[in-house]
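#struct-queue
[09:14] JT: dropping the first one here, sequence first, then the structure tokens:
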Amino acid sequence: MRVWYLMIGAACVFASQAAAANDARFLRSLQKLGPIERLEQLCDYTALTQIRKDSRDFRPDRAVANAGADVKIKNDTVEATSGAFRSRGKWYALSYTCTTAPDHLKVTSFHYKIGDEIPEAKWASYGLWE
């Protein structure tokens, strides 16, 4: 029985190390982007990770801040009122407000709201894909 717990503990450590490595790679890739694109990418990534963390109902793999309308950017804040995220092959409406540090490498505030599923017939008009 003790071996089983050690195996589970080791699996958890490896999983957290893999997540940290992914985060480090993501941060390195962000540093290669211009400031506005970095801000938008960091906020979309934060939306994905926050939804995954908060809800077992969703497993998002894509987020688009400007699916239905352009985002509003002011200083270090993105306001996405008509975004979307994909989970398990379906798209859902998403709105969020995301504020980052001035270098756009760390989120300082993030609030989001998940809306209804977006019907597949509307995906093309929102610029969404399978």
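[09:21] JT: and here's the second one, same format:
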Amino acid sequence: MIRVVIPANLRVLAHISGEVELQVEGEVTQRTVLDALEARYPMLRGTMRDQLTQKRRPFIRFFACEEDLSHEAPDAPLPEAVATGAEPLLVVGAIAGG
């Protein structure tokens, strides 16, 4: 079971309280986790990645095991701790400005 924590505004949009647990078939990557998340919560499509290009939205970041995975390839395997459910994948809305 994969654990995912998404920003509060997206939890409200999807009517989720707390962390999401997902079953992911095959290799656990950013792409497979987001595919499973969007399949379960279709209202999240396009909020974390562009629907056409599948690229991460500019102000969305992915973290796991105290590492910024935002610039990793979408098909790169996520850390083992995420794949086993020991650690969650964190989706964080970045803030710009000063």
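[09:30] RK: nice, looked through the second one.
[09:31] RK: The chain has a mean pLDDT of 94.
[09:31] JT: good to know. The CA atoms of residues 30 and 73 lie 8 Å apart.
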